[in-house]
């Protein structure tokens, strides 16, 4: 695996910010009541990650070690502000729906974590790839959790897609079932915690299964044969 | 002459888990009969649904976990959970309520934590809370007792309304819920709570005709039924006295203090003890051997905590009854309680000899 493949593998699966590092749980649990909310926050976080990783990587040799954390936080805050203003301008309703959680991306530990752990030690192109893949992994979990909760809670998928994608996306909404008694638990915070726990459990069990399969394949087949006839002599 | 050996832990009755669970189920009988008498056959139908769901869920999950599911089902713990949950669900809720609740209780609250003996929370109560916050309208839809319902319903009607939403005569649940004068009826706890927000006093609320005409007596009788069953459990020593006694005492004391402070805004201890699920909670739910505290002193604290929380949540909380919330809150406190109430190991002396000596004096040794 070259570095890019390694970064992809780490970001999406092996070191997934949400499922393995368990970082950024506050927005993750709070906004994933629908797919589109999750996707919106995921995209915003990804953009911030790429931007902050690139910038941090560029300035990594200039910033004195003692004050690196405040500098990183300010870089991140700047990007969050840009994203926030952009969303305010172009996807206003989604901006309203996500509310406080957009400015709170600043405090998402996944971002400062990548800046500190990877971007401040590696060249720009790798740092950008790391940001992209970590953001992608995070978005994936947000969307998955959002889909679980939206399906159970409202019986729909992709409702409110027009908030993010524009008017044409209004028809994307899929209504799987409709009920007079929505399953409120899925939409309320406990549903987020339960769903998150189940996702982590699923990931771990898949991991174990794959590892067990790999271990079976790797072990050389030792055929042991007891010699019973002494020296073969014809 | 009878020679009773009093000291040392002598194990007297050898009951298996299954025996114990069946005994507890048997002891709910007086309460169950009274509940059916006053509120119809719905709870029994729900018990059937929940029981089947519980056994199937337990078997499926144990099969996935590659455990021996036959033994786990024979110990009846899943059935007991199903029974306790079915008794808490309003009798004529739709069938899927008890299915979802039981799957949650057995699958998530019990088996995900490792099965019988490992669950942190009381499965029936966790499931009840889950249902209550998910479907608040259905879960607070108690019917008025029989004597106040304009239409009669039989076991077939009960099953019919649970599965289709209508009785065999075509009455909907909403129609059944309307009392004599077209008032929507609720439990006494509900009624007093609503009336208090409409600036009536407690005594005014309790003087209303619906209440006097049977609402209070029905709930009081159901509670007395569970009290009888609980006393039977105490007599045969299936449960210890610590949790129920401390819980009921704490409730009575807390409610008493509140009532002395302002009897217009706070209900009497007797009202608290005989309404809602108090007795069911005290003797059958809080005493769950797995999720309750394990030391005697700890049980006293555990029970008292539940009693206190019930009064607090009933008085100031958003939901009418509070047994489930109180039990879950104290379940969370159990590790802490157990840590601070560890009994002295037999034959060892505590390092704080003074403390021990003081205890000995108190116990009159």
Automatic annotation (TrEMBL), chain A:
Sequence intervals crossing the membrane: 20-50, 71-91, 97-115, 127-148, 183-202
NCBIfam families assigned: PRK12405.1 (NF009070), rnfE (TIGR01948)
Main location: membrane
Entry similarity comment: Belongs to the NqrDE/RnfAE family.
Record's keyword annotation contains NADP: no
Quaternary organization: The complex is composed of six subunits: RnfA, RnfB, RnfC, RnfD, RnfE and RnfG.
Enzyme Commission identifier(s): 7.-.-.-
Source organism of the structure: Fluctibacter halophilus
Protein topology in the membrane: Multi-pass membrane protein
Keyword entries, A-Z: Cell inner membrane, Cell membrane, Electron transport, Membrane, Translocase, Transmembrane, Transmembrane helix, Transport
Its job: Part of a membrane-bound complex that couples electron transfer with translocation of ions across the membrane.
Compartment list: Cell inner membrane; Endomembrane system
Annotated protein name in UniProt: Ion-translocating oxidoreductase complex subunit E
TrEMBL record, chain B:
Family, similarity comment: Belongs to the NqrB/RnfD family.
Protein name as annotated: Ion-translocating oxidoreductase complex subunit D
Keywords: Cell inner membrane, Cell membrane, Electron transport, Flavoprotein, FMN, Membrane, Phosphoprotein, Translocase, Transmembrane, Transmembrane helix, Transport
Signal sequence interval, chain numbering: none
Role description: Part of a membrane-bound complex that couples electron transfer with translocation of ions across the membrane.
EC number: 7.-.-.-
Chain ranges passing through the membrane: 20-38, 44-64, 76-93, 99-118, 125-143, 218-234, 241-260, 266-286, 298-316, 322-340
Modified residues (FMN phosphoryl threonine): 187
Required cofactor names: FMN
One Pfam short name: NQR2_RnfD_RnfE
Cited PANTHER family: ELECTRON TRANSPORT COMPLEX PROTEIN RNFD, ION-TRANSLOCATING OXIDOREDUCTASE COMPLEX SUBUNIT D
Compartments in which it is found: Cell inner membrane
Domain of life: Bacteria
Main location: membrane
Coiled coil: none
Quaternary data: The complex is composed of six subunits: RnfA, RnfB, RnfC, RnfD, RnfE and RnfG.
Broad enzyme group: translocase
Membrane topology: Multi-pass membrane protein
